[in-house]
């Protein structure tokens, strides 16, 4: 009897051990020519805020690493080290070993272990297909080809991608769920590129922007099966939904001027989508509006979304976005900070109490930021007699020399501060999601406007003068 109990306990322990293992993946390996000493392994937990589950490990003296990452369902998993990121596809319980050169993007990693065949195929697919048909390489063809030729080009890419997968020697060994997800990604990348034709043509060939395209170009949109909740795990499908949404908004804009692009997106999503697809798109619209739009309008959309959404994960993500935005809403105290300026002097936000601060988060590598520089110079000239107006710049450049050089070369006048990246406490306290981002802080140290116009906006003078008169 004692032997039977021992066996039962052993079986129970083994079962528990396997169950624990099935909630995670183990990745180990060696990095050749690393540019850093840390490896990050992560996957995206949602397609709204793009939150991640991640683990970071240090390379040992032999440039080897090993890590375990919680993973409860199959997903794309990324292995990142400076200069190179590998995209894998793993299922719970996988235990893989890989060796790769961080300096050679063309060299395929070596894989071994258990549960690696999908990753092995994906790495090859990305090298042979994704690298060949990157987004900008494809969209640039919109400026060269008429609608029919462009459609044929996109269909050709789709057929090549499908054939590449089906003819691969590993195809029969691939997990059916992975194959289904790959088919969805390839299919909706095709539709997404077709949806991008008009804006891409306007960008790459502005002289053709007003040329009509045949109604048949969008015939594929009439297929009701295009919108299917079964594909909501496909990032390409979700991107297609956004492209379709913007297409409908542009159609509406052609009929009459829009009061709000975000509100139009919200209303059209309510009308054209259903189920999980609709909730996912609505969550993206609200998330974007809370981060980049008018807070009052975004709050109204947030409240409506929370009333109709039944997806707990989406509700949680959107609620977190709202709470982060609410802290920085007009009327709230601006987060305090103390930093060293470009001249080595200590500067605190509190130093400017009694003045109006036009705060600009920027970076020297940011194209849209640099586009604002000449407009900002003109704005300062127009506001030269406003002694209580402070132009305060916080750069997120990790390369301090690049920051200093850019300020000097472009003669950017104002108070200049620098923090090394978005993860620094100051940009984090301002919920910085991208650059450029502007805030207008009133004389009382409270946020007057959390989304003031940029220097090139015709309303900027009015907004600044209004704050100065408070």
Total individual domains: 3
Number of helices: 16
Radius of gyration: 26 Å
CATH superfamily of the largest domain: Glutaredoxin
The major β-sheet equals: 5 strands, mixed
Just name the CATH architecture of the largest domain: 3-Layer(aba) Sandwich
> How many extended strands?
15
Structural class, judged by helices and strands?
A: alpha+beta
| Low-confidence segments | 1-20
* Mean model confidence by pLDDT: 94
Fraction of residues in β-strands: 15-25%
Name the overall outline. globular
Brief account:
This protein is of the alpha+beta class. The protein contains 16 helices and 15 strands.
Strand and helix layout:
Layout: H1 2-21, E1 24-32, E2 38-44, E3 52-58, E4 64-70, E5 75-81, E6 84-90, E7 95-101, E8 110-114, H2 117-130, H3 135-139, H4 147-166, H5 176-195, H6 197-204, H7 235-255, H8 261-272, H9 275-292, H10 295-308, H11 312-326, E9 338-340, E10 346-348, E11 356-362, H12 367-371, H13 373-382, E12 389-395, H14 400-409, E13 415-418, H15 425-429, E14 437-441, E15 447-449, H16 460-468
Parallel strand pairs: 1-7, 11-12, 12-13
Antiparallel strand pairs: 1-4, 2-3, 2-5, 5-6, 7-8, 9-10, 11-14, 14-15
